[in-house]
């Protein structure tokens, strides 16, 4: 991966956000959200209480193509953690999946020849699970690393990172029949205080928090292990359908969102953020992409600024240092981030962090708690009393 940094975005003049809010990305309901709903039912929460806490009408969730906005899924994770009294629920949710009830992208992986091929398919089709998901793997000598990132910093959440890394370890074991023992696990969020859940999910591998990425390190030889359920005939038809759905999703997504996802991916990969590189990722000519983007009322540099603004707020909320945040977002030095922060929020990063802790800000500015909505604690309390 390139280690080049982009500093031009720090000089971008626009001080506000883009002209209008970008569309919220969606994620497939099957199977994670359905498993969470089932878990909540078993802990005494009714559909009405779930809808009150999350805005999700559960009766609409059983269509194969059903999708939900990410903010609702994030609230569903929060409610599940409160209802089960288990802050490690995202690390263990796959244990509650009904047998063979997996999203069909997982079935594409199950029909692959090797674990490497399964991960390549997951990387390609991750947007079918969630438009903002980005999964990847890299080989570093004798070690390999599986990485998860959320390409929309407005909805970056520990629930998604924990769930996907735990799924990767579980898939590795399930697909190959061999124990995938990680060497090390890294998360960008702070330690939520559930050491036993991490120990079980990752076979006792050391876990580092407030890291520069969400990743799972393992022996690179695992990549060449054969998948027990490989089936090239069935995979041919599954990938045809996956390609069709991916093209449809890309056609329906606003170009502003797709550009933002590409910007975020480049920043997280420590690559230079240029319009030409974004055009390359989106497989469009720069001239055509610029025309479509401007037709939506967007400017490229404003989108770069917006990605950085949301990511900086989220990372500071998690507890990363100003130096860490500056490096992650490609600023030339911490002082450049501090200058941008004053332009974004009219305050310093340190003051902003203090206001976050006091509850005066939402890191995603608008993706925070709903007004007049009962808290998960209140709803869980009602369920306990009902039992």
UniProtKB/TrEMBL annotation:
PANTHER family: HTH-TYPE TRANSCRIPTIONAL REGULATOR GADX (PTHR47894), HTH-TYPE TRANSCRIPTIONAL REGULATOR VQSM (PTHR47894:SF1)
Record PROSITE patterns: HTH_ARAC_FAMILY_2 (PS01124)
Record protein name field: AraC family transcriptional regulator
Protein's organism: Caldimonas aquatica
Classification via InterPro entries: AraC-type_N, Homeodomain-like_sf, HTH_AraC
Taxonomy, superkingdom: Bacteria
Keywords: DNA-binding, Transcription, Transcription regulation
Sequence segments annotated as region (Disordered): 1-21, 363-387
Gene3D superfamilies, per database record: Homeodomain-like (1.10.10.60)
Ranges for domain HTH araC/xylS-type: 257-355
A Pfam family this chain is assigned to: HTH_18
């Amino acid at each position: 991966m390139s280690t080049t940094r982009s500093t031009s975005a720090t000089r971008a003049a626009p001080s506000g956000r883009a002209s209008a809010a970008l569309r919220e990305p969606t994620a497939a309901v099957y199977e994670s959200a359905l498993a969470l709903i089932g878990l909540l039912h078993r802990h005494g929460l009714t559909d009405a209480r779930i809808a009150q806490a999350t805005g999700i009408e559960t009766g609409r969730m059983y269509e194969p193509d059903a999708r939900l906005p990410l903010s609702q899924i994030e609230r569903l994770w929060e409610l599940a953690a409160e209802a089960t009294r288990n802050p490690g629920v995202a690390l263990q949710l796959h244990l509650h999946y009904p047998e063979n009830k997996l999203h069909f992208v997982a079935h594409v992986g199950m029909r692959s020849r090797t674990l490497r091929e399964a991960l390549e398919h997951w990387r390609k089709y991750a947007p079918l699970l969630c438009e903002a998901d980005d999964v990847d793997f890299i080989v570093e000598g004798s070690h390999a690393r599986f990485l998860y990132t959320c390409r929309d910093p407005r909805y970056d959440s520990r629930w998604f990172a924990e769930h996907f890394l735990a799924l990767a370890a579980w898939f590795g074991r399930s697909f190959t029949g061999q124990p995938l023992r990680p060497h090390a696990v890294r998360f960008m969020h702070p330690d939520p205080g559930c050491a036993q859940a991490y120990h079980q999910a990752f076979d006792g591998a050391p876990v580092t928090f407030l890291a520069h990425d969400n990743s799972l390190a393992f022996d690179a030889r695992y990549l060449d292990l054969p998948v027990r359920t490989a089936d090239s005939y069935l995979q041919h038809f599954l990938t045809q359908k996956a390609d069709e759905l991916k093209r449809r999703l890309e056609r329906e997504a606003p170009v502003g969102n797709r550009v933002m996802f590409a910007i975020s991916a480049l920043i997280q990969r420590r690559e230079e953020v240029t319009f030409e590189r974004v055009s390359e990722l989106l497989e469009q000519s720069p001239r055509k992409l610029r025309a479509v983007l401007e037709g939506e009322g967007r400017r490229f540099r404003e989108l770069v600024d917006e990605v950085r603004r949301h990511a900086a707020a989220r990372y500071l909320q998690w507890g990363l240092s100003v130096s860490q945040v500056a490096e992650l977002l490609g600023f030339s030095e911490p002082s450049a981030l501090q200058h941008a922060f004053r332009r974004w929020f009219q305050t310093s990063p340190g003051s902003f962090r203090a206001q976050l802790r006091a509850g005066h800000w939402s890191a995603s500015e608008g993706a925070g708690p709903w007004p007049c909505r009962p808290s998960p604690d209140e709803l869980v309390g009602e369920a306990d009393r009902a039992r």
